[in-house]
UniProtKB/TrEMBL annotation:
Cell location: Cell inner membrane
Protein name: Succinate dehydrogenase hydrophobic membrane anchor subunit
Lineage of the species this protein comes from: Bacteria, Pseudomonadati, Pseudomonadota, Betaproteobacteria, Burkholderiales
Physiological role: Membrane-anchoring subunit of succinate dehydrogenase (SDH).
Main location: membrane
Involved pathway(s): Carbohydrate metabolism; tricarboxylic acid cycle
Domain of life where this protein originates: Bacteria
InterPro entries: SQR/QFR_C/D, Succ_DH_anchor, SuccDH_FuR_B_TM-su
Cofactor: heme
TM regions (residue ranges): 26-44, 65-82, 94-119
Organism: Hydrogenophaga laconesensis
Length: 121
């Protein structure tokens, strides 16, 4: 009979715990800060908010860089969450691998699209 408690506890798994918990919180905080910055810019914009106003908010290079950094944070945030969901709820390894690869490809495609939108490539 093996002991699975106390100091003799057998721990298995990927051991992502603290790192991923912290990454989720940091990326969420960055996204919340970005949302606040955009909201403040919208609130302090005079006149009606149309395409020109939105384009003006994102026209500055620092805002494009910040927006892309937030897209990167969002992609990592999504990756950690989806990876955990796939690992927790999809037991067949082959299906889980396909879902992991699909998630990575989808997120990279979204980041490529973000670059195109921000810098009009």
């Amino acid at each position: 009979m093996s002991v699975n408690y106390g100091s003799k506890r057998v721990v298995t798994g990927a051991h992502y715990g603290l790192r991923d918990w912290l990454a989720q919180r940091i990326t969420a905080a960055l996204m919340a800060l970005f949302t606040l910055i955009v909201l403040l810019q919208v609130l302090f914009t005079s006149g009606p908010i149309g395409y020109e106003s939105w384009a003006g908010i994102f026209a500055k290079q620092w805002m494009k860089a910040l927006t892309f950094a937030v897209f990167l944070a969002l992609a990592y945030h999504v990756w950690v969450g989806m990876r955990d969901i796939w690992m927790d709820y999809v037991k067949p390894a082959g299906i889980r691998l396909v879902l992991h690869v699909f998630t990575i490809v989808w997120l990279l495609a979204c980041l490529g699209w973000a670059v195109q939108v921000l810098w009009r490539l």
